[in-house]
Specification:
Distance between the termini: 34 Å
Low-confidence stretches: none
Largest sheet: 6 strands, mixed
Number of strands: 9
Strand content: 25-35%
Helix content: 25-40%
Number of helices: 9
Oligomer: single chain
Radius of gyration: 18 Å
């Protein structure tokens, strides 16, 4: 399974964000998407997920002439979008009910909540009172339950404490065998720790860097050098 980005373009009035972005993402890897603020990482994710219509180019799965439908892509937003009027338990139950055809062997609601480290005392609290990190756990849980082939993660680990971040990294490593995971982050340590490959978004284009660079002693300096020529956001 390969997700192909072919000559993708996206403009916002006079501002060109994606100019000629092309890359092939393969199943079985976690990709780290790096770029400066305003480089277009979220715009790229929105075009892949179908939330934004590209001005040119295409996004498709290899062997399919059409762009992935919404159900093919799981999206973990930097700012969680959840129904604040439900409890965590109610939300997971609702999610199970509406996705019953995509979750062939559903578990009890409590098992899912425990999977992402939510304490039982929090299961029956309104999501409105959850911390940012707890809301992010619920977002991640939706992806873990539905198991879409393509998963987009926009700054997913920055709001977690050390223990929760470690748990999420392990879950993502387990998922990658049968999925394409693309993780956007500003934290180079996260990228070098969890990602199999790094993709740079610079001046509206995508560029992969070798695996050897991720584990190089001067990894941070090399990334800064690659991004140093980008136009100011």
């Amino acid at each position: 399974m390969i997700l192909q980005i072919n000559h993708l373009q996206k403009n916002f009035e006079e501002k060109k964000v994606l100019t000629d972005a092309s890359f092939s993402f393969e199943k079985g890897k976690i990709y780290g998407l790096l770029g400066r603020n305003g480089a277009g990482k979220t715009t790229l994710f929105n075009c892949i997920s179908g939330e934004l219509k590209a001005d040119g180019g295409e996004v498709r799965m290899l062997g399919d002439d059409l762009a992935p439908s919404v159900c093919d892509v799981g999206y973990v937003y930097a700012t969680p979008v959840l129904p604040d009027f439900l409890t965590g338990w109610e939300f997971v139950k609702f999610y199970l009910d509406i996705n019953h055809d995509k979750i062939p062997q559903p578990k009890p609601v409590g098992d899912y909540l425990a999977m992402v480290g939510l304490e039982e005392d929090d299961w029956y609290r309104l999501i409105k009172g959850y911390s940012h990190g707890m809301k992010n756990k619920l977002q991640m849980l939706c992806v873990l339950m539905a198991q879409p082939p393509v998963v987009l993660l926009d700054e997913p680990l920055t709001s977690f404490d050390v223990v929760a971040a470690h748990q999420m990294k392990e879950l993502l490593r387990e998922m990658k065998t049968n999925h394409i995971l693309i993780l956007s982050t500003h934290i180079l340590q996260i990228a070098s720790d969890i990602c199999d490959e790094i993709v740079i978004l610079n001046n509206g284009e995508l560029r992969g860097v070798g695996e050897e660079m991720i584990h190089a002693p001067d990894f941070e300096n090399q990334v800064i050098e690659l991004l140093g020529g980008e136009r100011d956001a």
